Structure to design on (476 residues):
């Protein structure tokens, strides 16, 4: 099973993993990645995630197709939430399933690197003190993370 | 040519609207031309596109580079670098 | 929280991840790896996992300490089951939590590579046809997987 | 010197017992010496250690190499390469 979801609701990693492995005996390795809303300074009330409806799903699907072309995956799920997300809450989930762990790990990391830089989502900070929260800036590190996939695997 | 333009994040905030329909003059061939044309429409556009090369573009919901032609596009989107995940 | 468990019971990945993140707002990335019992030929009734009690926990703790020395982890859990495990069931769980995804991914993969080659567990096959199931042989690929960690990160 | 020996997986099956206590002669200095000494105790040991260098060893629950001294060990374990995970 391969699926992409863009939703406001939270997700359940155990349920997603279970769906992926249901009635299958050929899956030896499942990797999940969960991205959460951080707030180390204790200044946020929430992150607000804006997205481009339609394109978000399409682009996540294209990234998933890229991953399937590179590794022998037996299943994968991508879920990205939008709307207001409080500190400590989940933002994004990637689940990959394969016979062996190397493919599951590599595909999950690839999917996150590409989601970060290609999926049309933008984060805005809402602050406790009511000050105008800014848009989160894109990180060079995220673009650089893509370089490790050129010429691989 | 009539085309729907959509804006996201601070591009949307600076322009002051989420979308609009525009009639493009024939001189607008590429995305770069379109950005230059929009910039001349008012200071809100000039502000949104002040760092033009930084702005990302999608045509019909797929990423494109700024030298891509706009001919045949139904929906052209402008937005900042993405920060999801 | 850092923990190592060797047990016969199954584990709940969502519960383990929740424990790791409870009351924390500094964790931005959680990676889980689940290793499952495969049976592509449909010939197994179960894998039986033998372990060296005491040493299994100690060695898993040492591998975890190694990982903590290499990456800035905010939490990690290692769970390895023993006894009879049916096809499709869980065998091993690694959960890593960090501020950023790179550390969480690398540490989880490192922990699995080292658990495979250092934790004292042995798998024996029990076959449906009653034939004497053999001990699973160690794979060269698992030893080779360790090479990528020399000189890194 | 009296020491507890423990065996796992097919090493245990070939020797036919999970553990035993033995008194080591003074000539047994390293793990390699111990394996050679055990091999001479009977054919079940010779069978278990027929590929001696392949067998893994732990002293007091930590991995050791075959050139490690056995002096002071309370528990020495022999087992095949591990296949967990």
């Amino acid at each position: 099973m391969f699926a992409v979801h863009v939703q406001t609701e939270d997700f359940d990693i155990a349920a997603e993993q279970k769906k992926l492995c249901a009635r299958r005996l050929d899956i030896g390795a499942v990797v999940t990645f969960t991205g959460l809303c951080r707030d180390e300074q204790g200044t946020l009330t929430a992150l607000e995630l804006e997205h481009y409806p339609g394109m978000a799903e399409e682009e996540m699907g294209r990234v998933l197709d890229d991953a399937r072309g590179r590794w022998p995956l037996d299943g994968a799920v991508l879920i990205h939430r939008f709307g207001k997300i409080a500190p400590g809450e989940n933002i994004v989930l990637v689940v990959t399933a394969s016979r062996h762990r190397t493919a599951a790990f590599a595909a999950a990391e690839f999917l996150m690197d590409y989601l970060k830089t290609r999926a049309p989502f933008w984060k805005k900070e809402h602050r406790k003190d009511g000050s105008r929260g800014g848009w989160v800036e894109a990180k060079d590190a995220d673009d650089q993370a893509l370089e490790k996939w050129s010429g691989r695997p | 040519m009539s085309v729907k333009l959509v804006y996201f994040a601070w591009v949307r905030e600076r322009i002051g609207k989420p979308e609009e329909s525009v009639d493009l003059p024939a001189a607008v061939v590429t995305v770069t031309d379109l950005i230059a044309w929009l910039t001349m429409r008012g200071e809100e556009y000039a502000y949104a596109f002040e760092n033009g090369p930084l702005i990302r573009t999608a045509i019909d919901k797929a990423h494109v580079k700024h030298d891509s032609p706009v001919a045949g596009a139904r929906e052209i989107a402008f937005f900042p670098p993405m920060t999801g995940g």
Q: What stands out?
A: Residues 101-118 of chain C form the longest helix (18 residues). The helical segments of chain C are 13-21, 55-70, 101-118, 140-147.
